[in-house]
Amino acid sequence: MISAGPRWRHASAARYEETAFWLGLHELYPPVARLLRENAGSVAVVTAKDAASVRTVLEFHGLGDTVAEVIGECGQKAEAVRDLCERGRIAPAAVTFVDDNLGGEPPWTV
After folding, report:
1. Is 43 left (phi over 0), alpha (psi -120 to 50) or beta?
2. CA-CA distances (angstroms) from residue 31 to 28, 36, 107?
3. 26: closest CA among 41, 39, 38, 14?
4. More confident residue, 94 or 7
5. What would the DSSP string read from start to end of the chain?
6. Mean pLDDT rounded to a whole number for the chain
7. How far apart are CA 76 and CA 105, in angstroms?
8. Residue 13: pLDDT band with limits 50, 70, 90
9. Does the predicted model carry a pTM greater than 0.85?
10. How far is residue 65 CA from its own chain's centroid?
């Protein structure tokens, strides 16, 4: 089990106690807003972050209505994407998965 360190506790507290500061830390890469708007309603977010935080950040950037589903606190992203494909009856080959975690793990397929 991984325990939350002081940095995480501060970030979590900042979300509620210093909301404007916390939201200001969440910048989007320039093409992300455009892509979300162009694909509104067919986008799902699978993330290790909590879903409520993701929704809050999306709303802050005026993108709350672009994402159909947020699967938060996800440690098994490939499994979550497979589940989304099954529920939506979408071929995995038709899915584009973007991840900002470039750690040493090899790429995986859905």
Report:
1. beta
2. 8, 9, 23
3. 14
4. 94
5. -PPP-HHHHHHHHHHHHSHHHHHHT-PPPHHHHHHHHHTTTSEEEE-SS-HHHHHHHHHHTT-TTTEEEEE-S-S-HHHHHHHHHHHHT--GGG--------SSPPP---
6. 83
7. 13
8. confident
9. no
10. 14
